[in-house]
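Input.
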Amino acid sequence: MALSAAQWDAIRTEYQAGAFVRALARHHGVHESSIRQKAREQNWTRDPQAAERIRRANQPSGLHGMATSYAPHRPAPRHSTNSRSASLAPGTVPE
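Output.
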């Protein structure tokens, strides 16, 4: 399905405002490469601060200015359960 000029204008406006190409493609029902190609051919430019504004707008409230990196849960280290080490008192050295 070909998009109308009005639809491409809407995509261009959102693109220049900093919207992500993947989100635009999904929303407008067009392939990402079509948007990228049109942007390249017509020299669409983005607002340099747009990505930062989007990131901040999507950040949960109360976390502005805080580092929000993903830290996966790490399981507790496994301890040996053999009978010899289980019978040792803390601070003793095996023979």
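The first helix runs from residue 5 to 16.
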